[in-house]
Amino acid sequence: MKSRFSADAVDPNTPVIEGHHGADYYALMTEALHKLLLEKRLLSQADTDRVIAALEAPNTTWGARLVAEAWADPAYRERLIEDGSAAALELGFRIKEAKLVVVANTPALHNLITCTLCSCYPRSLLGQPPWWYISKNYRARSVREPRRVLAEFGLDLPETTELRVHDSNADMRYMVLPMAPEGAGQWPLEQRIAAVTRHMLIGTAA
Amino acid sequence: MSEPPFRGYHDIGGRPAGPVACVEKPFDDWQKLSEAIRGAMDAQHQIVSLDEIRRVFESFGEPLYETLGFYERRAEALSILLAEKGVVSLPDIHARMEAIAAARGQRVDHTEKTVT
C-alpha cells in the first residue's frame, strides 16, 4: 500500500498548489460547530469572546517596542538576543506559544523568517501573520530562492550581504531585530516604535 | 534500490512555487471564531492542542491540503479532531450546516466544500 507519507506520493519537483478553496464552507462549518458546542455546554459565548480578544490584541507595535528598547539600550539588546522570551517578559509581553528567538541584522548579515512546514509565527507578540506569510508560495520559495523573494518585496540585497533564513518550528518562533537608523538611540520611544514595520520584523524589509 | 527520503505533503520548503502575492487580507470573523473555538476548547478541556491540529492536517490527505488555505485546513482539522475524540460527530456538524444553509435558501456540498 502506498503510504500518504512516502516520497513517491509527494514528488519534490512538483510545483505547490496555492489553493484557497472553501472559505464559505468552513465559515458555515465554524458557525455550526460553535452552535453545537454551546448547546452541549462545552463552551460559553464568553469563552470564545475571551480568546478572540486575546487573538486581536497583539500587533506589530508590541514587537516594535522590543526593538525600540534594544536600539536605545545595548544591555537590553544583548538580553533580547540571548533569550527573546525573557527579554519580552521584562517589558510585559508573555510569549505563550513557544520560545522566542530574536535574530539581529548587521551590515554584513540579513535575516529572514519563514515557516515551511506550517505557518508558525510569534502570534502572541505580533498577532496574526500577513496573508502572504501563510501562503504556500512564500513557504516553498523562502528557503529555495530567498533573494528572489526579497527582490519581489522590493529588497535588493547586495550579494556581499550574507542571508540567513530561519525556518520556524513547533518549539521556536523567530523575530528579526532590524538595524537601528542613524541616531535612533537618541530618539523618543514613540518615534523608535513608529520606525519599525512588520516587514522589518520578518525580514522582508531592511 | 535506495528508498526515497521521507517527506510529507506539508513539507513544501524548497518545492517549485509561483510568485508571492505581496498583499494583505483581513483576519475574517469566521477565522477568528474557528481559532477561538480551538483555543477555548484547549483552555477549558485540554482537548485540542496545536500539535494535534497539525497532526490532523498533515495526515488528512494531499488533495485537501492542496485545495485549502491555512484557516480552512485548520477548521477542517478541528472538526475531524473533535469527532475523533467523540465531542461532536461529523454527521451532526454536517446536519447543522445544512439546516443553517437551508434557512438562508442555500445548499451545502460536502464533497466540493461549497455553499451555494
Work out the oligomeric state of the chains in this entry.
heterodimer
Overall form of chain B: globular
Distance between the termini of chain B: 50 Å
Could you tell me the mean pLDDT of chain B?
A: 93
**Total separate domains of chain B:** 1
CATH architecture of chain B: Orthogonal Bundle
User: Percentage of helical residues of chain A?
Assistant: 40-55%
Structural class of chain B: mainly alpha
Give the second-level CATH assignment, the architecture of the largest domain in chain A.
Answer: Alpha-Beta Complex
Q: What gap, in angstroms, lies between the N and C termini of chain A?
A: 49 Å
CATH fold label of the largest domain in chain A: Nitrile Hydratase, Chain A
- Largest protein-protein interface: A-B, 71 and 67 residues
Explained architecture:
- The complex is a heterodimer of chains A (206) and B (116).
- In chain A, α4 packs across α5.
- Chain A is globular.
- Chain A has 206 residues and is α/β, with parallel strands linked by helices.
- In chain A, 42% of the residues lie in helices and 12% in strands.
- The N terminus of chain A is likely disordered.
- Chain A folds into two domains: 33 residues; 145 residues, Alpha-Beta Complex (Nitrile Hydratase, Chain A).
- Chain B has 116 residues and is mainly alpha-helical.
- Chain B has one domain: Cyclin A, domain 1.
- Chain B is built from five helices and two strands.
- Chain B has a two-stranded antiparallel sheet with strand order 1-2.
- In chain B, α1 runs parallel beside α4 and α2 crosses α4.
- The radius of gyration of chain B is 17 Å and the shape is globular.
- The N and C termini of chain B lie far apart (50 Å).
- The model of chain B has no long low-confidence stretch (mean pLDDT 93).
- At the A-B interface, α1, α2 and α7 of A face α1, α2, α3, α4 and α5 of B.
Task: Tag the structure with descriptive keywords.
heterodimer; A: 206 residues; Nitrile Hydratase, Chain A; two-stranded parallel sheet; 12% strand; B: 116 residues; Cyclin A, domain 1; 2 strands
